[in-house]
Design goal:
Alpha-Beta Plaits, 4-stranded antiparallel sheet, flat
Length: about 425
């Protein structure tokens, strides 16, 4: 494809001219000629010094040894200065130490930004203050972080010493102590090797010198009190939470109990309505069965001729059951055969509506049988529907036989005792 490019573009791909050869300006190192060739040191051995005439070697000081030496010299120099100042130090004749030593309070670890008026406001709560002396640096004029407070009464100083230790002023907890320079024998200030150590007594033999120059036991007691107070508040909060949880659980139980009671009342009302509905349905079926029985009796009375009428309209005839139900005591002959023919005729001429109603009645009976309430409910229904106090010829039979007989009275068959389904009566 490059052959189709224009000449100006093909010139870009053309190779450059070869680099021209230029002779070197000077010879290479291995080509140079040396006027003095290399030689050994053997000719110079006689110039060496005799080892027997050499001075003994000297050992130089290392860096660590030099630092340790300077540190020791500094400590020795400081000790000499401290001894000199101890000889000159007399707190009772110090011009800066004024006022009553037993009414003066020492305050250390003060914030450098804290003013004298702020200290006065903080410590006047314990009593009237006579004088406040804040210590400043002589060279820079800046505060050194401690002060002396003189109270008018000694009891106020003791109250401040007892309660103001560890008080936070301008974000820093101050250290409060009595003035020990003029009150404690053998006590030395911090610049002379003493100060407020762990025992707050001073002196190299009794003072505990460490970074935290305070009485840790007092702070430990305060921390223990603070921890106990915190634990007490936490236990109180836990008890309140547990009490609230119990109350919520009891409210939930009461709410669930009320809902269960309401649901139970609703179900009981529904069950009572269902029972009333079933009772009405059974009573209506009983009335319907009695009405059909009366109609059947009237029809039999009109077509049977010399058949014996029942004693009352509501009583079923004792010989109206299916063949073989009441045994050989029932009437037989042409009247029984005519009654069977009439029953077959009526059965064949029933309408489809009556068949559907019978099927619904059979389904209701099956449902009642499954619920387990058929026996007791039917006994009460028969007692109500049978016209209480009337003799219908069934008193001598048991409950099962009476129910079976009533079922056979109401339709065209009988109820099988083993499964509760309506069975067709066997024709004679």
């Amino acid at each position: 494809m490059t052959q189709f490019l224009p000449p100006n573009l093909l010139a870009l791909f053309a190779p450059r001219d070869p680099i021209p050869y230029l002779p070197p300006l000077e010879k290479l190192p291995h080509e140079k000629h040396h006027n003095q060739p290399y030689c050994g040191i053997a000719p110079y051995i006689r110039e060496f010094e005799d080892p027997r005439d050499a001075p003994p070697p000297t050992r130089a000081e290392t860096r660590e040894e030099r630092m340790e030496r300077k540190r020791r010299e500094k400590i020795e120099r400081r000790q000499q200065e401290v001894e000199t100042e101890l000889k000159m130090w007399d707190p009772h004749n110090d011009p800066n130490a004024q006022g009553d030593a037993f009414k003066t309070l020492f305050v250390a670890r003060v914030n450098y930004d804290t003013t004298e008026s702020k200290l006065r406001r903080e410590f006047e709560v314990y009593g009237p203050i006579k004088r406040i002396h804040m210590v400043y640096s002589k060279r820079s004029g800046k505060p050194r972080g401690y002060a002396f407070i003189e109270y008018e009464h000694e009891r106020d100083m003791h109250s401040a010493y007892k309660h103001a230790d560890g008080k936070k002023i301008d974000g820093r907890r101050v250290l409060v102590d009595v003035e020990r320079g003029r009150t404690v024998k053998g006590w030395r200030p911090r610049r002379l090797g003493g100060g407020l150590g762990g025992t707050r007594r001073g002196g190299a033999d009794v003072n505990i010198r460490h970074s935290g120059r305070d009485d840790t036991s007092r702070y430990d007691e305060r921390d223990r009190d603070r921890d106990r107070e915190r634990e007490r508040r936490e236990r109180s909060r836990e008890r309140d939470k547990e009490r609230e949880r119990r109350r919520s659980r009891s409210r939930d139980r009461r709410r669930r109990s009320r809902s269960r009671d309401k649901e139970e009342r609703r179900r009981s009302r529904e069950r009572s309505k269902d029972k009333d509905r079933d009772r009405k349905r059974r009573s209506s079926r009983s009335r319907e069965r009695a009405r059909r029985e009366r109609e059947r009796k009237e029809e039999l009375r009109g077509g049977g001729g010399d058949m014996a009428e029942p004693s009352e309209a509501g009583d079923p005839p004792p010989d109206d059951g299916p063949p073989g139900e009441l045994g050989p005591d029932g009437p037989d002959g042409p009247e029984e055969k005519g009654r069977d023919r009439d029953r077959e005729r009526r059965r064949s001429h029933r309408s489809e509506r009556e068949r559907r109603r019978d099927r619904d009645r059979d389904r209701d009976r099956d449902r009642e049988h499954k619920r387990g309430e058929r026996g007791s409910e039917r006994g009460r229904d028969e007692a109500r529907g049978g016209g209480g106090g009337q003799d219908n010829g069934l008193e001598g039979l048991g409950n099962d036989s009476r129910d079976m007989y009533m079922e056979s009275e109401g339709g065209d068959g009988y109820l099988a005792p083993e499964n509760g389904y309506l069975m067709e009566a066997a024709p004679e």
